[in-house]
Amino acid sequence: MAPLADFPRRLAVLGSTGSIGRQTLDVVRAYPDHFVVVALAARGNVALLAEQAREFSPQLVAVTGQDDETRRQVAALLPGALAGIEGLIAAATHADVDIVVAATSGLIGLRPTLAAIAAGKTIALANKETLVMAGHLVTAAARRAGVEIRPVDSEHNAIWQCLRGERSSSVRRLLITASGGPLRSLSLERMRDVTPEQALAHPTWRMGPKVTIDSATLMNKGLEVIEAHWLFDLPFEKIAVVVQPQSIIHSMVEFVDDSIKAQASLPSMHLPIQDALSFPERLERAGTALARPLRWAEVAHLEFADVDQERFPCLRLAYAAGRRGGTAPAVLVGADERAVPLFLAGTIRLTEIAEVLEQVLATHAFVAEPDLDQVVAAGAWARDEVSRLCGQPVETV
Questions:
Q1: Is the pTM of this model over 0.70?
Q2: What is the pLDDT of residues 174-183, one digit of tens each?
Q3: Residues 93 and 121: beta-carbon distance below 8 Å
Q4: At what angle do helices 313-324 and 219-232 cross, to 10 degrees?
Q5: What are the structural domains of the chain?
Q6: What pLDDT is attached to residue 142?
Q7: Quick one: which of 252, 249, 259, 282 has its CA closest to 162?
Q8: What are the start-end ranges of the H helices in 119-269?
């Protein structure tokens, strides 16, 4: 595939009304000469999507939500919008798009990302589930198409930056940092009584509710370990997690000579998004429109700690699912997608998320080399199985 053209680079933003999508559009606002929005897609926040469409005048707008209220709002506010997964794929494969920002959450992002790769688009990947569930399919497709997958997650983007100019044979291990979330100092006994409000009170990051709860259980770190395995082609024994509560060090790479590279900045998703969109160029900071510069004197001190997997069993489950491979990671993702809303609704305790996930992983019909349909089916089955285990109605994905 030919390298990206010079600026401006033309973007499709999938999941434009979510946290990463909104911050991507902040970057576009800050650098209007460098980035142009060609396509926007979102699930159900039609009012915000309509505002974004008015501001950025994309050639294509898509809405994936298909409930009656969403359809009514689309008819009133975005009558020309494409609908459903077909609209998402159309946005991802639009002929005028250079970079697809894959910022949808969950299962729905998988097919559009694969379609974008087949169409030769550079992928700025913020959807963990895409590589966690189907890393074997996505990375193989990217190799065949000569497509670059650029990590947007702050941890993976930090590793990507640290690895530039280095040989893979020189890497001893990756060190993925975790803030530890809002519950890092609680005992296991106290964690059993944590409320949704407590679990949503993240000390350093502002994210959507699903990702915030995954941060509280450290499931997000487990998914990041699996994602790093596919992004950087390293075995799981070379990927470790370390707690860094201040969220200043976003991840590190340890080399065979004992030296360590770290990427540091104040906690902000704007910088990794900007890096993924502008690479190999680094854009001069756009005043104070995005992140503030890091001033070491203000940081005062940095802490590091190991993870207690007894208190955070979701991390252990993710390592196990990643090592097993096949459909196990897809089942983990699907089960977690259903279990987290049940916790937020007060149906199960926070500590029961891991218990339910472990049951589902133990009983699923494992497939060692799943195709795309089998991956999607495994994730959907896991959602339904969590509902059944918790006495809830089975939902459609």
A1: yes
A2: 999 998 877 8
A3: yes
A4: 30
A5: 9-152 (3.40.50.720), 156-265+293-299 (no CATH), 313-389 (1.10.1740.10)
A6: 98
A7: 252
A8: 128-145, 154-163, 188-191, 196-199, 209-217, 219-232
